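Pipeline run #58 for the internal structure catalog. This entry was flagged by the ingest filter as a single-chain record with no existing model, so it goes straight to prediction. Upstream metadata was stripped on purpose; only the residue string is passed forward. Reviewer on rotation: M.T. Logging verbosity set to normal.
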Amino acid sequence: MSSTAVANRKIEYSESENRKALIAVKAHLILGLAVLLLMMLAGLTMRAVQGTWLEIGADLFYQIMTVHGVGVVGAAGIGSTGVLWYFLRQYVRLSNTIFWINFFVFVAGVVMLLGSIFLGGYGGAWTFLYPLPGKSMGVWSTGAAAVFQLALLIIGTGFLILYLDMGRGILASFGSLSKALGLPQLFGRVPVDTTHPPTVVAGTMVLIVNFLGIAVGAVVLVMGLINLYNPEFQPDALLMKNLIYFFGHVFINATIYASVTAVYELLPRYTGRPWKTSKVFYAAWFAIVFMVMAVYPHHLMMDFPMPQWALIVGQVLSFGSGIPVLVVTGYGALMIVYRSGIQWSTTTKLLFLSMFGWAAGVIPAILDAMVTVNRVFHNTMWVPGHFHFYLLLGLLPMMFGFIYHLTGEGRQGEQPKAADNVGFYAYLIGAFLTSMVFLASGASSIPRRWATHMAEWVTFAQVGTVAAALVVLGMLVFTFRALFSLPKAAEPR
């Protein structure tokens, strides 16, 4: 049976199409989960080294730091894409073939990254800040730096192809990106339709910002590659830093806006209440389209040549970036759950935890975005504290909750298994402690990205190591659950 047109806002696919799509989504999630587990082990290793419980060379430490940074961002990207694609294809027709192309391009890029780091010795961090990749003082070769940047360029190309397909599907179903975002309803040109899918709004926002972010990333990567083999080509270092942080900041932020579709789609199923859109909802998502792209200068406040207006914009928007969508999503989640009689399965607990992590994780970022605080905190552990809070307790629980939903957990009154409870609470406690130890370390002026810590800092690192071990324990439970249950799980109803 071939697929048919839109019915009740949803695309109807054949059983064969749905089966193939589900296999592709599972592959994305399992790959993302496996990479995340490895990156968490890398993080645990670094904390153990800083805590003097493990000894490795400084070169290897910075290689692990590099793979940890780029690996977490990549895994978050491929996993959140799986979440968004699964729900978005219910409203717009998407190509399963292009979805797989992005998957295999991503895998090829990961292999190149691993080769550049562990065979070529590249350890210049995921930020590849110009001119560091070309000035390694013999620690890594020009070829290793080039393969690292070429790998990112290839991975970005795969995502661009996927976003083109998403754009094609959205335009085919809704006519324009503005209609998909609900702008005619926001500005009163048409009546508000409360059944307009939140997933389409979120997916359109992610498409716009990530397409631009990755395109900018491609430009700076090409400029970096040219410099590696033609040193006479010397681009402006501040311009390069701006382009890199625009690309990186937009990409990692977009992962949480892609994954929040799991909250919009799943909480209504577990509570029996629809997630209704409104003018406030559209306004929040429309605002975040611009705010998420303009907020990155809060990473450049210590670069004194930056134009003052750019730093002011970065600081002001940092106070509000994320809050519009967070408020409508958090408030919406509370209203849907309140007195709904929801059954607290691992799925729903993870989705609700993500609301807390997203909300609380913003607070350290807002503090760091204040110029007077930034001067003291920005090169300390405070910054890893912010993004570990944001990712471990905000983004990843959205992905894990979706995975548990796909495994069928919580169906027909089934109670969470003991192992799932152990995994959930080990992860929760470990993630919270990991983040708080980073923040406390930053508040104590402990610098980030140092392989060797002074004696006064070691206790922080040792507590952080124990906390990271709890995170890994929880992650092991989630990963084993996914590996054993996800491949054979049928489409949830």
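catalog note: The domain at 15-488 is CATH 1.20.210.10 (Cytochrome C Oxidase; Chain A).
catalog note: Residues 15-50 form the longest helix (36 residues).
status: ready for reviewer M.T.
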